[in-house]
Each structure stands twice: as structure tokens, then as C-alpha cells.
Amino acid sequence: MLIKLTHAHIIGTVIAYLIGVCLVPLVISFSKKEGLVDLPNERKIHTKPISRIGGVAIWASTMLTFLCLVFMSYYPYGSLLSGILLGGSLMFLLGLVDDIYNLDAKFKLFLQVSIATLVYLLGVQINNIPFLGDIGIFSYPITLLWIVGISNALNFIDGVDGLAGSVVTINAVTLAVIAVAMTPPNPISALIGFILAGSMLAFLTYNFNPAKIFMGDSGALFSGFLLATISITGVMKAATLAILLPFLVLAVPIMDITFSSLRRIAKGKSPFVADAEHIHHKLLHAGFSQKKTVMILTSVAIIAGALASLFMGSQTIKHYFVYIVAIVIIMLLLNFIKVLTKK
Questions:
Q1: What is the C-alpha separation between 108 and 117, in angstroms, rounded?
Q2: CA separation (Å) from 75 to 12, 13, 59, 81, 259?
Q3: What CA–CA distance (Å, rounded) separates 276 from 285?
Q4: Which contiguous run of DSSP H or E holds residue 51?
Q5: DSSP string of 268-284, one letter each residue
Q6: Distance CA 107, CA 120 (A)
Q7: What digits encode the pLDDT tens for the residues 167-204?
Q8: Residue-wise pLDDT tens digits, 3-23
Q9: Structure pTM?
């Protein structure tokens, strides 16, 4: 099957980047004036206060891009899109309130489950599992576990400059490519993925080491929610083994949240209590720099995405490599520009 991106995908990605790259400096300036910064402590690796509401720019650039597409008559009035954008916006607002007021972990989990329940009722559901078929009443808890789990997983890996943003970008593009390659294809899920990638690249322009801004809970929860939901609508609707591909695509955040939760439970601690023993922390303790840590885990995400794309066929893997090579080149250029401007 030959994969062809629609004009909406291409235009949406570019618009999201252009809007985002203009918004991020404004968010940085505002957060510094209002004291909305992340302060250094023993668990964090940065040494000076840094803006912690980058999610505002990520969310705004994503939503404004859809608004632009409406004016350009490109808006795809398709199934489940409104539910995903509504749920993503609610998850963003929850994260933003948490960034400002530091909500209780259990209360935040309750609200996340409520948001996931809302989008489930709007049709974003995991209904089939290979070898088991229709899972019936188990659809609800499994869908909630996936959405809430992936949303928080992105928050878990957001501990090194450029890491979460790089992984989200790779994951979003991978899911978008696979969504288009599915039978039948799902261009709406692909569109969300490409727009998210464009917004995240704009954020990365200021987030690569040394970071000027962090995505915070608002950005991590919003991005994780979009990845979780487009993986359901774009891939998991297939009643084949392809339903398992999102587990491979999202390997980095899934591994980190799984091992982190099991480790904390084994120590008799709450899985919601933050610590400094995530995968990226272990790589840093092993002597790798922040940039090398990002490079290693981003490479894992790229390899996982390649394996998932290979499952879909030769045409899919070819297109995957074209898009990923383009994304990696852009990331390297952004990093290079960051180094030059630093000097």
C-alpha cells in the first residue's frame, strides 16, 4: 500500500511548528514574571529556575493549528476527533493546575480516570484483543489503564533536557505513519500525530540542553494523552496482531513507567511518589551526559518504531525512514543552532 500524506498533514505540521516557535518565548517570559518556574532540588538535575509551563505552548499550537485548518477548509470532521481534542484539553488543564498548585497525586489520578472515562464514552475504546476477540466488559478498564498509563508515562521520562519531547516526536510520527498504513487507513489519527510532532519540534527548539523551558505536567499529560488515544483510534481498531504495535512504538515510556512502578511497590512505596531512579537517571549515573542520554533513548524509540513499521510492510518501513530521517535532521539542526546561540 502506497502511503500518501494529504495536504492537511503537511500543512498542519508546518503551521504547528511556526505557531509553537513563536509562542514558546512568550510563555517563557510570562512564567518568569509570574514565578511559574521549576526550582532545583536533590531529585532534579538542573541548577537554575526554569519555566515549567511549556505545555501551554504545546497545547496552544496544537489547538490553534486545528483552528487554522478550519479556516483553510482542511478540518476533517471525522469520528472521534472532537472527543480526543476535548479530552486532551481537559488533561492539559489538569496538568497546568498541577504545575501551579501541586495537586495531591490521588486526586490527580481520580481526575485522569474521569477524563479517560469521558473519552471512552465518546467512543475511544479498546474493544478487541488478539486471540481473545471482543473483550466485552473488560473494554472499559483496559482502555482506562492504557490512556491513564501512557499519559503518566510521558511525565515519568520528562527528566532530562529534550528527552520527553524527542520521544514524543518520534512516537507521534510513527503512530501517524502506521495509522495511514492500516486497512482501512485512519488519516484523522495521523493528522493529530503529525500536528503534535510539529508542536513538539517547536518546543524542542527551546528545550534541548541547556533547556530554557520544561513541558511540565501540562505538556506531558497532554502529549501522553494524544499518543494514547491516537494509538487506539489509529491502530488498535484493527482486529489483528497490529493492535499490539503501540506497545512496541511506545516502548520507552512503557518500560520506564512499568519498572518505576514495580520498583516503588517492591520498596513499599507509593508508585505515585517521585524518585531519581528512572532509566534516564541510571544512564546519567553511569556517566552519560544529558545529550547522550537523550540520544540513547531516542534511538531506542526509533528502533522500536522501525520494527513496528516493518510489521506493516515494506512500503510502510520505507516511508517511516523518510520521515524519521527528516525529523532527526531537524532535531540535530535545532540542537546545533542551540549550541551556536549559546556561544
A1: 14
A2: 10, 14, 17, 10, 40
A3: 10
A4: strand 50-51
A5: T--TTS--S-SHHHHHH
A6: 20
A7: 999 999 999 999 988 878 888 899 999 999 999 999 99
A8: 444 567 888 999 999 999 999
A9: 0.92
